[in-house]
Every structure is written in C-alpha cells, then in structure tokens.
Amino acid sequence: QVQLVESGGGLVQAGGSLRLSCAASGRDFSFNVMNWYRQAPGKQRELVATITGGGSTVYADSVKGRFTISRDNAKNTVYLQMSSLKPEDTAVYYCNVFITPRPYWGQGTQVTVSS
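-> structure tokens emitted (115 positions)
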C-alpha cells in the first residue's frame, strides 16, 4: 500500500518560487532514495532531483542552483523548493521511489510558470 501524494503546484510568474511536497505512506522511507521527475507537454519525463536517505543530493543541470530537494524522514515527506522559476520549468512534477521490484509514482502536481 505504498502511496505518494504530491502537492504545492500552481501558477507563478517567472522569477518566482514554489515549494512542492511529496507525502509518502505505507512504509518507512527513511532509507530509500527519493526522486522528483517532471514531464513537460510533448516531452519525455526527466529526472529533476534525487536525495538519498543520508541526505546526499543530485540535480539535473537545468535546475542546479535554483532547486533544492530535502526530506523530513520523521514525516515521510520529501520537498522540492523551486526558485528563480522559468517558463521552461512548466511541467507536471512527480515524486518517485524505487522499491524492489518496481518504481512507485505519485499522481503529479502541475507547475505553470508564466512569462
């Protein structure tokens, strides 16, 4: 019964900021690598950011320096703080975790950045 639920998406102006949340349930995720992906219209889903259970992070080049992934293991929640948003950041953002034998995905939350 693993479940991931994203929230926090919305419409913002270019240069603005937004914080996305991913509430995970069904197990203890504190040792799992958690990821944020996004999918823009007409494009493939791409990995945006990764965080390990120990807090190590990796970012896509396109968001490096602007986005920050973090986690609160006590709350089983992962966050994506987005700043200096650009129109090209417009996409549906998805939370993801791989638990053998398959990945799990949230329903996605829409982020729209206007110019």
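DSSP finds no helices and eleven strands in the chain.
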